[in-house]
């Protein structure tokens, strides 16, 4: 499937590195608006056509494309999405714009098969919604809360501009994808040096009749599923159960780390790596849906 990438910053450039390795996806345009972007120089060195005209360059090639990856910002994607649809392009959105169908490959990848606009929620959603979903598959989750901590060095301008969207979109993913009745998300940009890898705390309130063994098995199984496309995804502690609530409910806590593959950015930038890895995983499923591969 021939695809374009709009957005030549950290996420877009890391995505480009992964797309180059895919046997099912072919990047044929890398477009942004910053002529000094290191990503543009990388793409040019690989012989991939580039442009500083952003979305306009992609739309000019619409007849030659099957899909487009949006790696800009929530506001930009909200403006671009109707134009992609009018041009007949599949859109895979790496911003927290909350347009289209929200997808986390480990949980609901089948949704991508019917969608024309796929939203990858946020890095926090990609990391934590699978754990909430794992608990929800075997217990009733009345409330889920997550805290995603990322290195300040891995948060570019797009991430910083989208903090509000991040919290809302991630909380929504805990509900719509994770299966929690209510969700809350918190993001922390940690300036520590040396930079730390992405860390996530996931906490779920479940009913008293839940089976702890079933929860532990489901969580481990889900983590293994995520690792198929994000090798650096791992549980560092948990699931831990706290049965101290007066109404009989107990809290399930899982603590995660995500180490990046080091394609374009350092390994500590697992928050970006999980987004770009998920984007490729979804794109390859869409390629299969479109019949461009056997």
CATH architecture of the largest domain: 2-Layer Sandwich
> How many domain modules?
2
Shape: globular
Which class best fits the helix and strand makeup? alpha/beta
Low-confidence regions:
none
Mean pLDDT: 89
> What's the order of the H and E elements?
EHEHEHEHEEHEHEHHEEHEEH
Please count the helical segments: 10
Share of β-strand residues: 15-25%
| CATH class value of the largest domain | Alpha Beta
- CATH superfamily name of the largest domain? Dihydrodipicolinate Reductase, domain 2
The amount of helix comes to 25-40%
Largest sheet report = 7 strands, parallel
Question: Which fold name is given in CATH as the topology of the largest domain?
Answer: Dihydrodipicolinate Reductase, domain 2
Strand numbers in spatial order across the main sheet: 3-2-1-4-5-7-6
Rg computed from alpha carbons, rounded to a whole number of angstroms: 19 Å
Distance between the termini: 12 Å
**Extended strand count:** 12
Write the layout of secondary structure elements.
Layout: E1 2-6, H1 10-21, E2 26-31, H2 38-45, E3 50-51, H3 55-60, E4 67-70, H4 74-86, E5 90-93, E6 101-102, H5 105-108, E7 117-119, H6 123-136, E8 141-151, H7 157-161, H8 163-176, E9 183-190, E10 198-206, H9 212-227, E11 233-242, E12 250-258, H10 270-289
Parallel strand pairs: 1-2, 1-4, 2-3, 4-5, 5-7, 6-7, 8-9
Antiparallel strand pairs: 8-10, 10-12, 11-12
Helix pairs in contact: 1-2, 1-10, 6-8, 6-9, 6-10
């Amino acid at each position: 499937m021939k695809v374009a990438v709009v957005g030549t910053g950290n996420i877009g450039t890391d995505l480009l590195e992964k797309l180059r390795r895919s046997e099912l996806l072919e990047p044929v345009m890398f477009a942004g608006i910053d002529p000094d972007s290191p990503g543009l120089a990388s793409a040019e060195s690989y012989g991939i056509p580039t442009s500083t005209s952003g979305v306009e360059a992609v739309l000019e090639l619409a007849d030659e494309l099957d899909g487009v990856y949006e790696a800009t910002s929530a506001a930009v994607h909200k403006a671009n999405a109707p134009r992609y649809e009018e041009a007949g392009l599949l859109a895979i959105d790496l911003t927290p714009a909350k347009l289209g169908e929200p997808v986390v490959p480990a949980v609901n990848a089948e949704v991508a098969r019917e969608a024309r606009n796929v939203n990858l929620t946020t890095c926090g959603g990609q990391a934590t919604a699978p754990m909430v979903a794992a608990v929800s598959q075997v217990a009733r989750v009345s409330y889920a809360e997550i805290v995603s901590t990322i290195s300040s060095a891995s948060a570019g301008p797009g991430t910083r501009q989208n903090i509000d969207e991040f919290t809302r979109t991630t909380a929504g993913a805990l509900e719509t994808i994770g299966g929690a009745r209510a969700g809350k998300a918190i993001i922390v940009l940690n300036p520590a040096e040396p930079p730390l890898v992405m860390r996530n705390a996931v906490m779920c309130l479940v009913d008293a009749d839940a089976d702890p063994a079933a929860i532990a098995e489901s969580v481990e199984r889900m983590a293994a599923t995520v690792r198929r496309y994000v090798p650096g995804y791992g549980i560092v502690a948990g699931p831990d159960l706290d049965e101290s609530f007066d109404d009989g409910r107990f809290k399930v806590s899982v603590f995660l780390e995500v180490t990046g593959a080091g394609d374009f950015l350092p390994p500590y930038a697992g928050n970006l790596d999980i987004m770009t890895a998920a984007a490729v995983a979804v794109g390859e499923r869409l390629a299969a849906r479109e019949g461009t591969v056997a």
